[in-house]
Design brief:
mainly beta; 135 residues; three-stranded antiparallel β-sheet; 9 strands
Amino acid sequence: MCHPRHRAPHPPAGTLASLGDAHGWIGLKSKNDEQARFDVRVQVLKNATLLSEGVIRCVQDLSRNPAAATPVTIPFGPFSPVVLSGTDDLSLRVSTRRGTNPNGSPCGGSLTSAGLRLFFDSIKQPSSFTAGLTP
């Protein structure tokens, strides 16, 4: 049976004027990946068009245990304020890859991995991303 994708309500009409840092929790998919290092990227999109993004590089010392998930804070880059109509979709996309230095070269650690898990919001591990809207 197919389940409909959960959708948050559209943001109200106004101008998206600011973005606060994205806060989340990450952990390993496989215990075999304990030596792996990862980059984590977040993107904010309006109707699938990129508005801003941020990345942290070479995250390491991760655990597979959800109770020991690692907090990550990712600042967004600058963007120009954008008008939202009240029917626009505003979304957050999170992606990962093997850890890199700013020049794109590997930053060490294991060369293969099963990947990361994103633990987004729980009582003990709150997650957030804020958007400043003006009418």
